[in-house]
Amino acid sequence: MKNIRNFCIIAHIDHGKSTLADRLLEFTSTVAQREMQAQLLDNMDLERERGITIKSHAIQMVYNYKGEEYILNLIDTPGHVDFSYEVSRSIAACEGALLIVDASQGIEAQTISNLYLAIGNDLEIIPVLNKIDLPHAMPEEVSDEIIDLIGCDKADIIPASGKAGIGIKEILDAICERIPAPKGDPNAPLQALIFDSVFNSYRGIEVYFRIMNGTLKKGDKVKFVNTGKTYNADEIGVLKLNQEPRDVMSAGNVGYLISGIKDAKEVKVGDTITTVDNPTKESIQGFEEVKPMVFAGIYPVETSEFEELRASMEKLQLNDASLVWEPESSAALGFGFRCGFLGMLHMEIVQERLEREFDMTVITTVPSVQFKVFSTKDEEITVNAPSDMPEPNFIKTIEEPYIKAQIITKSDYVGSIISLCMDKRGIIKGQNYLTSDRVEMIFEMPLAEIVFDFFDKLKTISRGYASLDYELIGFRTSHLVKLDIMLNGEKVDALSAIVHRDKAYDWGRRLCEKLRELLPRQMFEIAIQAAIGQKIIARETISAMRKNVLAKCYGGDISRKRKLLEKQKKGKKRMRQVGNVEIPQEAFLAVLKLD
Ligand code: GTP
C-alpha cells in the first residue's frame, strides 16, 4: 500500500486536463506511442467530438521513482457542472489532486468549486500551471492567483504544458513525493466506494471502485449497501489500458468489478460495496441520490414511433442511471416521455444519443424545473411539466428551486453581470476580489432562470471572460403563473411555460414574436396568442401565403416538381402538425431563444 498513489485531476473545462492525462499515460508507458490517440480517456465518440469528459474513468500507471515502483491510479473527473456529483465521488476516492490552471485563462469557477471539494476531502493539492507554451500565457499573474487561492509557495507550482510535453516528469515525481499513500485496514470488513460505472453490452455493467478498507476476492458474494442487492464478484481487476483481472484486491486499490448487472439503476455512484459474509457496519459516508434538475418532454416526430422510442429510452437508461423518464401525453404532440436531466448539457446529450445511437428523430419541449405547489387543501403537488400545474384557484403557494451561483470574471464586467443577474431575479450575496482584476461574485437566484439562456448571455456580455458554477440551495416561494400559447385559438400544451408573474407579459409578447418568426407560413392566416388563464396578454398574426409552392412549376417538367416535393418532405422532419398548423422543433424551444 505504501507505494500506491490515488489522484484525480481537477480543472475548469478546456484547461487541458485530458491532454495532460494523455501525456502522463505516455510518459509512464501505460500506452505505447502507436496506441496513443488524442484524448484517450474520452472513449465515447460523443465525448471526443464535444471535447468534454462526460463520464469519469480510471486508469493505472506504473512509475519508477527513486528506484522504487509506484502504482499511480488516475481517476478522471468530468468538468461540467451537470456532473458535479460524479466529480465529488471521484475526489472522495483519492488522496491527492492535480489542480490544473490554464496559464492564459487563470482561475475559473469550476477550478474553485472542485478545489473546495478536494480540500473538503483533505486531498493533497499539487498546483500545475498548464499551457505555459502559449504566447499569451501569464505565468506570473496566474501563479499569484493560485498562491492566493490555496496558500501554497511559488515553488510548489509546477509549470507545464500538456501539448508541448513540459513538466510531465516533475508532475509524476510530485505525485509520488507529495501525495500520501492510502490508509485503510486490509483485514477490516470490506468497504469499497463506487465512483463510477460503465455499461458494456456484452459483460453487463462494469463498476469502478476504490477499496477504503478490507479485501475483495474474486468469487466473493458482495452486497451494495444502499441498494441492498447482492451479486457474485465474477471478475475483479485493475484498470490499465485494458482491464487486467486479479484474484485479490485490498485496501487502497482502485479497480473494476463485473457481476452481470444489466441495469445502470442498480449501480449508484457513491454506494458502498461490502461482502455478504463479513459485512461492514457502516457505508461510506456521503451517499446521495442524484436528482434531476431539468425536465422536458421528448416526443417522436412520427407518432407511430412511440414504442420504438420507448425501447430506445429503456436501452439508453441502462447505461445512464441519471436519466429518468415516464410516459406522458400531450394534446399537441401525442404520446411521448417526460424526462428528467441533471442539467441542460445532459439533456442535449440524451437527445443526441437517441438520434445517433438509436436513429430516432425526436422533438424536445420547453425545459422546466421542478416546482412544488401547495394547494388550498394543503396538499403538496410536484410539478415537472406546465401541464401538471393545477388550476389557479386550487393553488395556495408555489415554490421553485433556488441556487447559489458563483461567477468569476474580470472586474470590467462586474456591472453588466450584476444587471444580468438582477434581471434574472438574482440577489447578490457577495463579491470578492481574487486579484486586482478578477472577481468572484455570489448570487442567489432561481434555477429556472439559469436553465434558459443564462449561460450564453453571461458569456456574451463578458466576452467569454466569465465562468459559472452553481449548487441547489432549496425551494422558495415565488409568484409564478402558467403562460399558455394558442395557435388559431387552440392551446398548444407543449408550448406552455411557468414564469414569474412580473415577467409574464413581456415573456408572452416576446414569445409570440419569436413564434411568428419560426412558424412557417401556411395557406391561411395563423393567430398566435399568449394567455394567462382566460386572459389573452399578447397576439401576433402570420398572414396567409399567397402562392402555392408548386405554382412555380406550372408547365415545368415533372421531375422538378417531384424534387421540390421531396425537399419539402425532408424539411418536414422535426415538424409536428397541431390542429392545422405545422410547428417546427425550433418553435418548441423558442423560449430558449428570446432575447
Ligand atoms: P474537458 O475534458 O472538456 O474538461 O477539457 P480538458 O480540460 O480535458 O481540456 P483538453 O485537454 O481537451 O484541452 C482543451 C484545449 O486546450 C484543446 O484544444 C487542447 O489542444 C488545448 N491544450 C491542452 N493543453 C495544452 C497546452 O499545454 N498548451 C496549449 N497551447 N494548448 C493546450
TrEMBL record:
UniProt keywords, alphabetically: Cell membrane, Elongation factor, GTP-binding, Hydrolase, Membrane, Nucleotide-binding, Protein biosynthesis
User: Catalytic activity annotated for this protein?
Assistant: GTP + H2O = GDP + phosphate + H(+)
Q: Which GO terms describe its biological process?
A: positive regulation of translation
Q: Where would you find this protein in the cell?
A: Cell membrane
The EC number(s) attached to this protein equal 3.6.5.n1
Would you identify the family this protein belongs to, as annotated? Belongs to the GTP-binding elongation factor family. LepA subfamily. Belongs to the TRAFAC class translation factor GTPase superfamily. Classic translation factor GTPase family. LepA subfamily.
Q: One MF term from GO for this chain?
A: ribosome binding
Q: Which organism is it from?
A: Adhaeribacter soli
Q: Where is it mainly found?
A: membrane
| Residue ranges of every copy of the Tr-type G domain listed in the record | 2-183
Record: residues binding GTP? 14-19, 130-133
Q: State the name under which the record lists this protein.
A: Elongation factor 4
Classification via CDD domains: EF4_II, EF4_III, LepA, lepA_C
The record's function comment reads:
Required for accurate and efficient protein synthesis under certain stress conditions. May act as a fidelity factor of the translation reaction, by catalyzing a one-codon backward translocation of tRNAs on improperly translocated ribosomes. Back-translocation proceeds from a post-translocation (POST) complex to a pre-translocation (PRE) complex, thus giving elongation factor G a second chance to translocate the tRNAs correctly. Binds to ribosomes in a GTP-dependent manner.
Q: Which PROSITE patterns match?
A: G_TR_2
Carries keyword Cell membrane?
A: yes
